[in-house]
Amino acid sequence: MGKKIWISTLAFSIALFAGCEAGGDEDAAADFPEGPVELIVPYDAGGGTDAVARALADATEEHLGESIGVVNTTGGGGAVGFTEGATAAPDGQTVTLVTVELVTLPHMGLADVSHEDFKAIGQMNFDPPAVTVPADAPYDTLEEFIDYAEENPGEIQMGNSGSGSIWHLAASAIEQETGVEFEHVPFDGAAPAVTSLLGGHIDAVPVSPAEVLPQVEGEELKTLAVMDEERAEVFPEVPTFEEEGFSGADGVGPWRGVVVPEDTPDEVASVLEEAFMAGAEEPEFQEFMEDNGLGMTITDGESFGQMMGESYDFYGELISDLGLE
User: Fold this and answer.
1) Could you tell me if 216 and 223 are in contact, meaning their C-beta atoms sit under 8 angstroms apart?
2) If you write DSSP's letter for every residue of 266-280 in order, what string do you get?
3) Nearest C-alpha neighbor of 159 from the set 182, 136, 127
4) Strands 157-160 and 183-186
5) How many CB atoms within 10 Å of residue 282?
6) pLDDT digits (tens, 9 = 90+) for 254-267
7) Which residues belong to the signal peptide in this entry (predicted)?
8) What is the pLDDT of residue 25?
9) What digits encode the pLDDT tens for the residues 8-61?
10) Domains of the chain
11) Residue from 194, 186, 157, 153 nearest 169 by CA
């Protein structure tokens, strides 16, 4: 009898503890947020990611019921901000706007955190690389461009935003998919690479549609194809790589989304997910993205988390193949 009483008491205690723990999470969600929420941006104020963060914060505040303050925490190509976001208190009061560098930097030994240190809230953006060349280039289609590169190995100078950057990885993915060889020319960002392309100093760039949109509209440059399964909204007449018969390079490119520390209670994360998803659907945010030529990709936390895992594996293999580990 004594043994049965002890087992029953133990079972009751475990159930009571579990109930209190679950109740604690529910209480945390009920009380959340407790004051303004901080949104860490791992890059400088005034840049593209910062602008997206501020537009998203403005659109989300009314749905969250609290103000969202953007804090720029820079350094290490994003690693400093990622680390601060991952090590913040897991109470939902600190969220981080992460970019594709979260899954590339770890493979190059440039960051001690990755997507596994976070719980995904949602994705708001993806920009496929747009292979762009001078308007008077001797090729008008992706096929002609690839044929020229095959016939002239290493002759096409492909600008990027630095070794190991997303645009360098995009160009390298094209090489792997097609078997061609480029001369990779690094710049301190995509903007100077585009400027060099306009000046005739390089032959092509694989940057986001937004970064070449004014020059393409001004007929100074022409975009041959975008590396995605669907055409870019700002370039509806430009075919995709898949349409041109090259599908292996799809999915390469920068993305942005919101995350919280890994141990944040699911109930709190759900409140944030609902608010940020609603904010991303607000007309003013979508208008901001459209006006700036940025691709809208709105996915929930589960889908975003899965995508980050797939990106981590993809870039790990690519970076290893390039010897950039």
Assistant:
1) yes
2) HHHHHHHHHHHHHHH
3) 182
4) parallel
5) 17
6) 999 999 999 999 99
7) 1-22
8) 57
9) 444 444 444 555 555 555 665 778 999 999 999 999 998 889 999 999 999 999
10) 32-127+254-321 (3.40.190.150), 130-226 (3.40.190.10)
11) 186
Rounded Cα–Cα distance for residues 205 and 161 (Å): 10
Contact 118, 260 (CB under 8 A): yes
Cα–Cα distance for residue pair 30/268, rounded to 1 Å:
8
Torsion of CA 58, 64, 66, 72, to 10 degrees: -50
Record the pTM.
Answer: 0.86
Reply yes or no on whether the pLDDT at 219 is more than 50. yes
Give buried/exposed letters for 198-237 (b at 16+ CB in 10 A, else e).
beeebbbbbbbbbbbbebbeeeebbbbbbbbeebbebbee
Query: How far is residue 202's CA from residue 108's CA, in Å, rounded to a whole number?
Result: 27
Q: Tell me the Cα Rg of the chain.
A: 23
Distance, first Cα to last Cα, the chain:
63
Cα three-residue angle 306-107-304, rounded to 5 degrees: 15
Segment 230-251 shows an average pLDDT of 87
